[in-house]
Amino acid sequence: MQTTLGEFIRAHRERTTPASVGLSGGGRRRTPGLRREELAQLCEVSPTWLTWLEQGREVAASGKLLARMADVLQLSAAERGYLFQLAERLDPQHDDEDGVGDDDALDTMVAAIDAPAYVLDRQWNAVAWNTHAAALFGGWLDVEATAAQRPNLLRFMFRAAAARGLIVDWEDRAHRLVAEFRADIGKHAGDAALATLIADLARDSAEFQALWTSQEVVGREGGLRRFQHPRAGELSFNQVTLHLAKRHDLKLVMLLPA
After folding, report:
1. Where are the domains of the chain?
2. Each residue's pLDDT tens digit, 65-100
3. Which residues pair with 251 in a beta bridge?
4. What is the CATH number of domain 2-96?
5. What's domain 103-257's architecture?
6. Which of 104, 206, 235, 245 is most buried (CB neighbours < 10 A)?
7. Which residues form the HTH cro/C1-type domain (predicted)?
8. Distance between CA atoms of 142 and 38, rounded to whole angstroms?
9. CA separation (Å) from 132 to 141, 152, 218, 222, 258?
């Protein structure tokens, strides 16, 4: 993978003209592109380090550095995504994606799914859901989609009496949900909106506070979900969770018949 990353960087370095980044193109050049020393200077790293990276040696490239390199090399969105994929790093640009998107497209997507489905943002607010989900989650999603405050899954789980009656094995599910949430938010836990949510939940729910303090992390985002619905009776679903390709802060949750 490191060799592939280095080859990709070198190819795009050689395609980037000095004039396009504000440098003089004078002097004899093997290729019309940037010299390694020039790219290193523009990215504020040493030429030796960049040489090692292009050669596929085991050197670590931070997300911030890769973002700078993507800008200098004028990579397209697809090329930038590929760069970060090869480097196995998160793109810092995704940190600013909140609130950017087409709400109508999200609504259309979930409405087309013939099963309970909803989209969660990084705070686990529901930003879109279909009628199947609203019918299942009374006390959470049975609100107007245009409501000023987005319905939050964790607030429902730990604040709503309806959640304890609806969700079979509530204690076990609450335990896993908090551990999944910690894994999901990762380095973003200190962001203002998330910090406020966590503080509010810890203040209002001793159970949440104990689970959050335990520092447990799990990555499971699917599996069997069981409910005791007040009208439909016992229901079972297999949860499938997908992250949106262009909005890494959003994920689609589908509950398919078990």
Report:
1. 2-96, 103-257
2. 999 999 999 998 878 888 888 887 877 776 545 444
3. 120, 243
4. 1.10.260.40
5. 2-Layer Sandwich (3.30)
6. 235
7. 8-80
8. 58
9. 10, 17, 28, 18, 15
